[in-house]
Amino acid sequence: MKEFFDEFKKQILAGVGIVMTAVSGIVITQFKEVVGIVDEEETAPVEQVIQQPAQPNITINIPQQEAKKDTVVKVVKVQPKPKKTETEKRKDEGLDW
Q1: Contact yes or no for 34/27 (Cβ under 8 A)
Q2: Distance of CA 33 to CAs 42, 44, 79, 85, Å?
Q3: If residue 93 lies in a helix (H) or strand (E), which one and from where to where?
Q4: Which of the four pLDDT bands, split at 50, 70 and 90, describes residue 21?
Q5: CB contact at 8 A, 96 and 90
Q6: Dist CA 56 CA 43 (whole Å)
Q7: What's the CA gap between 11 and 9, in Å, rounded?
């Protein structure tokens, strides 16, 4: 239990030290304003001019896409009609008995 309070005491002292530092900074700033002491950095504001470097012109050439027409050729073999025999020719003429 003693260790807990020792750590607690250290934390409180650290917090008080931080608060005292902040308060002293504020007091010094207010004192400077009342007395009239001004920092050199505040008296001469420096104007910074930032110039953008010239951007180079970039030209990208994309070739024109040609529409390719695909021709599909399908070869169909046609079977020749078989020649009629003499008997079939007679049947067509009506001479078959």
Answers
A1: no
A2: 12, 17, 113, 130
A3: helix 86-93
A4: very high
A5: yes
A6: 40
A7: 5
